Amino acid sequence: MPAVLPFRLLPTSSGLRPLMHLGLMMTLSASPLFIPTSWADDAARRSYQVPAGSLSAALTRFAGQAGVSLSVDPVLVRGRSSDGLSGEYGVEEGFARLLQGSGLQLQPVGDQAYILSPAADGAGMQLPSTSIHSVSDQATDQVYAGGQVSRSGSLGMLGNQDFMDTPFSITSYTKETLKNQQARTLNDAVAVDPSVRSSNPAGGRFEQFTVRGFSLFNSDVSYGGLYGILPTYAIDMEIAERVDILKGPSAVLNGIAPRGSIGGGINIVPKRATDEPITEVTGLFASESQFGGAVDVGRRFGEEQRFGVRFNGVQQDGDTEWDDQAVKRETGVLGLDLREERLRLSLDIGHSKRHVDAPQERVELAAGARVPDADDIDDNFAQPWTFSNTKDSFGALRGEYDVNESLMVYAAYGARKGNYNFLRHGVQNTQDNGNFTLVPRTFRRDEDVKTATVGARQWFSTGSVNHTLNLSLNRFDMDFDNAGERYLRSIGNIYNPVDIAPPGRPNRFDDSTHTEDRFTSAALADTLGLFEDRLLVTLGARLQRVKITNWTNGVRDQEQNDETDTSPLVGVVYKATDELSLYANYVEGLTQGETAPSTASNAEEIFPPFTSKQGEIGAKYDLGDFALTAAVFRIEQPAYQFDNQNTFKPNGELTNQGVELNLFGEPLEGLRLLGGVMFLDSEQSDTTNGEFDGNDGTGAPEVNANLGVEWDIRAVQGLTLTARAIHTSSQFLDPANEQKIDSWERYDLGGRYAFKLGSSPVTLRATVENVLDKTYWASAATSSDSAAGLTLSTPRTWLVSATVGF
To answer: CB of 52 within 8 A of CB of 469?
Structure first.
C-alpha cells in the first residue's frame, strides 16, 4: 500500500509539461486508514467533507480521502479555487463537483488512478445543481457512524462545518436520535447532552435550560440560524431535521441572542424534501393517557427534482403523570424549497398551539428555610384551575445565490406572532413545613418578531494561503406587550395540596408594558487555511448595537438601554493528523442584560447590556467509527441577585470554568455510545462588600454526566435495546450557599423493533424514563419570570410509538 506523499504544486518548465501530462508528475495517494476495498465503481459512495479554497488543496484532500491517485500539472490549477463539497459522492462524481466550471476534466488512466487535462470545449465537468456551500443549515446531513450525531453543524455566519474543522465545541443530534428517544419537545431532546440541563418542570408553562451553568431561553433557540422565530414557550421536535448545540458565547457567529443566553446556543435545522419520497405516519402514547399522532410527508417535483415539499404535523392530547394535569400540543410546518443551478430558495411556514392544565411551577424558598424533601411530594401542588395557553405563527424565507464559482450571497427573513394567556400562581416563600404563599395571577403577553440577515461568502487564495471570507449583516426586532391582574393571596402546601376556589375579582392590576427590542450588527470574518489547510485560523469581529425602549401604561420610560460594542473572535484549528484536531478560541459578545423577575420589587426592569467573554481550548479525536472530544473553557459575565429590599440587580461577576468530555459513535458493530461528562467550577467575585466572593454560583452543579447505550440484538434482526443514565451533582439555590439540593440520578430503559409489513417499513419503540420512579429536585436556577426556584423531577413516564412508512 503506497505511503502518503505531500502534494505541492511546484512550477515546471514548459519543456517538462508534456511529460507531466504523460503522468510523470506528482501523485496523490491515500492514507491506509482511508482506502476502501474498491472505488473503481462510482456506485460506491461515501461521505466527504472538503472545505472551499484553492483547487489544489481541494483535490488533495478529496483524493486522499477517496484513496485514489491523481496526477496534476501545477500550471493547470494555479490560481483556481473550488467551492468544496459536502455530502455523499462517488469518486468521479466528487471530482466532477470540485472541477465544475474550472475548464478541466478528469481522465482515468488505470485502476484508481486519474489525471487532469483541459476540457475539449473549455467547459469542464458539469453536474446538476446541489447545495454545496450552504449557510442556511439545509445541506444534507453527513451522519457519523452510529447515526446519532451529524458530522456537520451550524456555525452561524461561518456556515455548516465538519466538527473536526470547527474551533468550537459543537454536537449535532440527528432526527433519528430524536425519533428513537421519542423526544416530544426540546426539553426531551437536550437530555442526551451532558453540558445541558433543563431548569423548569417538564409539566410547566415553559421550557428553559442551562448550558455550561448559564441560562438559555427558548427565545434564544434559532431556526435555521434565525433567532426568535420558533415558539417562545415549547418547541415540538417533530419539525427538526437536526439539533445543533454549540457551547459558549456565539454573538459573533449568530448575532445577539434576544434573551442574552451566553452559555451556548441551540439551532433547530428545518426539514427538507429528500430525493427519495417520504411518507411516514406515527402513533404516539405517553403516560398517563396522552394519545396522538404525527405525519411526515415529503416529495420532490420537476426537472431534476428541483422543487421540494415537506410537511410535518403532530397532535397529542391527554393527562400526564401529575394529578389534574393535562397537555395538548399541536404543531404543523410546511417546508418548500427550490434548487436551481446557482440559486437555492426555501420557505417554512408553521403554526403551533399548546394548552396545559395545572402547569407546575418552581418552588421558591423563604430566606433561611431548609430545602424541602422532594421524596415527600406525591401530588401536583398546582391548583386545578390554573392553565397555560400559547399560540405561535411563524415563517422564514431564505435564499442563496452563487455569483460565480468563488462568491456566494445569501439572505433570510423571518417573522413570528405569538399570543400567550396564563392563569397561574407562584409557589413563593415556602416554609419548613411546606406552606407557601399562593398568589393567583393572570398574565397576557403578545409578541411580534421580525428578523433578517444578509451576507456574502467568498473563497480565494493569496499565495499558499486559502481564505474563506464571510460578511454578515443582522437585524432583530421584537415588540412585546405584557398585562395582567393579581388576586387575593392564599396559603398552599407542597406536601398536602388542598384545592381552593378559583379567583374572583382582582385586587391589583399589573402595569401594562410595551417593550421594543432593536438589535443590529455587522460582522466580518476570515478563515485562513495554511499548510494545505492543516492549520485553520479564523479572525473576526462583530459591531453590535442593542437598543431597548419601554413604555409603562402608555408612557415612555425616560431611561432606555442603547449600547454599542465591537466583539472580537479568534479561532484556531490545527489538524495534527487526519484523526486528531486541536483547537482554541477566544470570543466576546455584547449581550442583553437580565430582566427583573415578576416577584421582584423592580419587576420587569431590563438591565443594560454587558460584554461576556470566553476562552476555550480543546481536542477532537476521530477514529472513524468512534469520536472523542475534550474542551477546557472559561466564561465570565455579571452576576444578578436580590438585595434585602427584594430588588433584583447586578452584583459582582460570575465565572464558570470547566472541562467537557464527549463521546459518540459505534466502537463495535451493533453497539452505539452517546454521552460525556462536564466538570464545572462556578464562582462569584466582586460582590458588594465581598459578601459572596468565592461562593458557588446558583444552579451550577460541579458534575454532569450522561451515558446512552444502544445494542442491536443479532439473534433477532431489527431488535435494539437502549439504556441511558444521567447524573447531576448537588447545586446551590442562593448566592450565600446556604440552601442546597442533593445530587440525583435518572435511569431510562427502552427498545425498538424494526421490520417490514409487506413493503412498508415499521418501527415500534418503547421507553421508560425514570424507570426507578425517583422524585428529586432536578435544578436550582432562576426563571424568566420568578426568583430562584427548585424544579421538581418528572415521575416514571412510559413512551410508546409506532412508525409506518409508505
So the answer is: no
